[in-house]
Amino acid sequence: MGADNESRGALVVFEGLDRSGKTSQCGRLVSYLEGLGHSVELWRFPDRTTSVGQMISAYLTNNSQLDDRTIHLLFSANRWEKRSLMETKLKAGTTLIVDRYSYSGVAFSSAKGLDFEWCKAPEIGLIAPDLVVYLDIVPEKAAERGGYGGERYEQLEFQRKVAQRYKLLEDSSWKIVDACQPLEDVEKQVKEIVLEHVMTCQRGKPVSSLWS
Ligand code: TMP
Q1: Does any domain span residue 6?
Q2: Helical axes 102-111 vs 156-169, angle rounded to 10°
Q3: Does 28 reside within a domain?
Q4: Tens-place pLDDT, residues 129-185
Q5: What is the domain extent for residue 125?
C-alpha cells in the first residue's frame, strides 16, 4: 500500500473495556498534541453520524434488534466507509486519535460466541494502526466507575468475556497501560508513548494493512 517514505500522520487507536477511560484520555491527548503544533483529529467508532452508524446506535440503545452477525458486519462497514478518508488524512500529515477500532469489533462480537476468525475476516485490509493503546482495567473496577450508561453491552459478565477476547488480539503494535492508576499518571504515560509514534510516522513509515 505504501512504498513511499513521506512524512505522514499516525493512526493511534485506543481500546479497552467500557468505562476504561478511553474517551477522556483521547480528549486530553488531542489537546496536548494540538498544543505542540501537530495536525490532529479525534475520531471514534462506531461513528454514529453516518446512516450505518445510526443503525448501530439504535441497536446499542436497544431501540432495534439485529442478528449478531448482522450487527458485526455493520460495525465493520462503519469502519470501511471511513477508510479512504482515513488514508487521505494520514497522508496529508494529520494524526488520527481513534476511540475504538477493529479490536472492539472482534472482542465484543466474539464474546457473544461468534467464531473469532469469522469476526476478524471483514476487518482485513483496513488501515493498520501504528499504535494501539490498550487501557487495561479489571471489569469489576470498570463497573464501579460511575456505573454503566445502560447501553446493550454494559454488563459486568459480558465485559469479563470481552476482556478475555481482547487478550487474544494483542500484537506488537499494542502498548498496555494500567488504567487503574490515577488519571494524570495514565495521561503522562499515554503522551510519551504516542509522541514517540507520531515522530516515527513523521519520519516516513509506510501505511500498512490490518491482518493481511
Ligand atoms: P462506545 O461506547 O465507545 O460508543 O461504543 C459502543 C459500544 O459498541 C461499546 O460497548 C463497544 C461496542 N462495539 C462493538 O461491539 N463493535 C465495534 O466494532 C465497536 C467499534 C464497538
Answers
A1: no
A2: 130
A3: yes
A4: 999 999 999 999 999 987 777 899 999 999 999 999 999 999 999 999 999 999 999
A5: 11-202
Whether residue 212 is contained in a domain is answered as no
d(CA 83, CA 79): 6
Q: What is the pLDDT of residues 31-50, one digit of tens each?
A: 999 999 999 999 999 999 99
CB-based contact 191:32 (threshold 8 Å) = yes
Q: Whose CA is nearest to atom 2 of ligand 1?
A: 18
Cis bond before residue 46 (omega within 30° of 0): yes
- How many domains is the chain partitioned into structurally? 1
Pocket around ligand 1 at a 6 A CB cut-off: 18, 45-46, 60, 75, 100, 104-105, 108, 153
- Position in ligand 1 atom list of the atom nearest CA 46: 20
- The Å distance, Cα 15 to ligand 1 centre, comes to 10
Please identify which residue in the block is written with the cell numbers 454514529. Answer: 48
CATH number at residue 133: 3.40.50.300
Q: What single-letter DSSP state applies at residue 209?
A: B
Q: How far is the CA of 206 from the centre of ligand 1 (A)?
A: 28
